[in-house]
Design goal:
12 helices; globular; eight-stranded parallel β-sheet; binds 1,3-dihydroxyacetonephosphate; TIM Barrel; alpha/beta
Length: about 250
């Protein structure tokens, strides 16, 4: 069985003071011991939040560069994150694909660099509404995975976390139904099973993202192939996210 993960993606929200208050508050809360709790936070807050987060809370980055080092003003490399003690990085979020031209080949490079520096990529995939309406959502997700991940060895792939985030459900309040999430998660696991074998595929955590809230987390997480959530808006509200961590 894959491990259970409740991950918050704060995106470009919170001042440092708000972020510190959030983590200090969250440190006092409790959730099942077998649930990994993670917050992906803005770059300037990584080290400060890692220093105050209690053991069991992972502080992650939201992106890294597709270059190793050099003249790339404004970029942050995987090596820099690793040297700052960061262990996880979100890659391939649809907002990066849409607004910052993170293509599948750029993402392949980012995945390689992250793994080379022993960071765990939380790799996002998912289709826009028009693709689902055309019935091509399985094909698109398969190609997103194939083009950025399928060059990896089984050992490397075993370190990755997958997040399925249908674009039409992100920040819209429209959640995929538990059945829609399960259908795609089972498909993703099958795609990995074909390429890497059943045992690696069974161990792969596949998170669902897109308008996850305290009120719908349990019905999503109870699906056989949904191993947790990647949560945007609701991860900015302590009580909401706490309930999500307790929804497995
Ligand atoms: P929302 O939970 O705000 O829909 O965002 C989901 C997301 O993009 C997490 O990465």
């Amino acid at each position: 069985m894959a491990r259970k993960i409740a991950a918050g993606n704060w995106k470009m929200n919170f001042t440092l003071q708000q972020a510190e208050t959030f983590i200090n508050d969250f440190n006092k809360e409790s959730w099942p011991a077998d649930v990994e709790v993670m917050f992906a936070v803005p770059f300037p807050y990584l080290m400060a939040l890692k220093a105050i987060a209690r053991p069991g809370i992972t502080i992650a980055a939201q992106n890294c560069s597709d270059h190793e080092e050099g003249a790339y003003t404004g970029e942050v490399s995987a090596a820099m994150l690793a040297s700052a003690g960061i262990s996880h990085v979100i890659l391939g979020h649809s907002e990066r694909r849409m607004y910052y031209q993170d293509s599948t080949t750029v993402l392949k490079d980012k995945v390689d660099l992250a793994l080379a520096h022993e960071l765990v990529p939380v790799f996002c995939c998912g289709e826009p509404l028009e693709v689902r309406n055309e019935g091509k959502h399985f094909d698109l997700v398969r190609s997103q995975l194939q083009e950025s991940l399928f060059h990896l060895t089984g050992e490397a792939l075993g370190k990755i976390v997958i997040a399925y985030e249908p674009v039409w459900a992100i920040g819209t309040g429209v959640t995929a139904s538990p059945e829609q999430a399960q259908e795609m998660h089972a498909y993703i696991r099958e795609v990995f099973a074909e390429a890497y074998g059943v045992s690696i595929a069974q161990q792969l955590p596949i998170l669902y993202g897109g308008s996850v809230k305290a009120s719908n987390a349990q019905s999503l997480f109870s699906q056989a192939d949904v191993n947790g959530g990647l949560v945007g808006g609701a991860s900015l509200i302590t009580s909401e996210f706490l309930q999500i961590t307790n929804s497995f």
